[in-house]
Amino acid sequence: MTTRELQVESFSLGPLQTNAYLLTVPGENRGIVIDPGMNPQPLLKRVANLEIEAILLTHAHFDHIGGVDELRKLKGCPVYLHDAEAEWLTNPKRNGSLNWPELGGPITTEPAEYALEEGMKLELLGLPFQVLHTPGHSPGSVSFLHGNKLFGGDVLFKLSVGRTDLAGGSENELLNSIHSKLFRLPDDTIVYSGHGPKTSIGYEKENNPYV
């Protein structure tokens, strides 16, 4: 029996170079997208001939949701988001796009079809994903875990952590999310962050000056 291995492709999108991730299984004509950001044309071109099962959002800041509308309309796929940020998709003040008009103006999209919560198990592409609620950068921040791959949004970066000075942010919550959830994962867990290069749990435990 052959093992179905998850393949990860990353796209650095928009003025803040937000990482969007396309997850596929080699040989299969379907995928899921995590955080389709602003100016999503490279991502849309890549998925032109793929069925997209779902859009997973680690959180709903504007730079992570800028491509949601185009991708959802193109592929007819549902969006998953934590309920704590349910209205951020429809409210440009909440998602922050009104605060930086020079980056592209207000961003709005239809509400998410599915609400995420701590401990939820998703089956996508025929593979299991676990939802970890990891607030601090924002109240509804979540991380998606499949095997030794963690898609953590703006919680933990290589040698850094997510900012906590935006609406709903909390440094105490962020550090608690990192220590009580992420740092309990095996050291070889690969962290695919919302910005910048990937890293690992073990490397950040040893070297990250913020935690």
CATH class: Alpha Beta
Task: Give the CATH topology.
Answer: Metallo-beta-lactamase, Chain A
Work out the strand percent: 25-35%
Low-confidence stretches: none
Measured as a percent range, the helix fraction is 10-25%
Q: H/E order of the elements?
A: EEEHEHHEHEEEEEEEHEEH
Compute the average pLDDT.
96
Overall body shape: globular
GO molecular function, one term: hydrolase activity
Function: Counteracts the endogenous Pycsar antiviral defense system. Phosphodiesterase that enables metal-dependent hydrolysis of host cyclic nucleotide Pycsar defense signals such as cCMP and cUMP.
InterPro entries: MBL_Glyoxalase_II, Metallo-B-lactamas, RibonucZ/Hydroxyglut_hydro
Protein name: Metallo-beta-lactamase domain-containing protein
Layout of strands and helices, then pairs:
Elements: E1 7-13, E2 18-24, E3 30-34, H1 41-46, E4 51-56, H2 62-65, H3 68-75, E5 79-82, H4 92-95, E6 114-116, E7 121-124, E8 127-133, E9 142-146, E10 149-153, E11 156-157, E12 160-161, H5 171-180, E13 190-193, E14 199-200, H6 201-207
Parallel strand pairs: 3-4, 4-5, 5-6, 10-13
Antiparallel strand pairs: 1-2, 2-3, 7-8, 8-9, 9-10, 11-12, 13-14
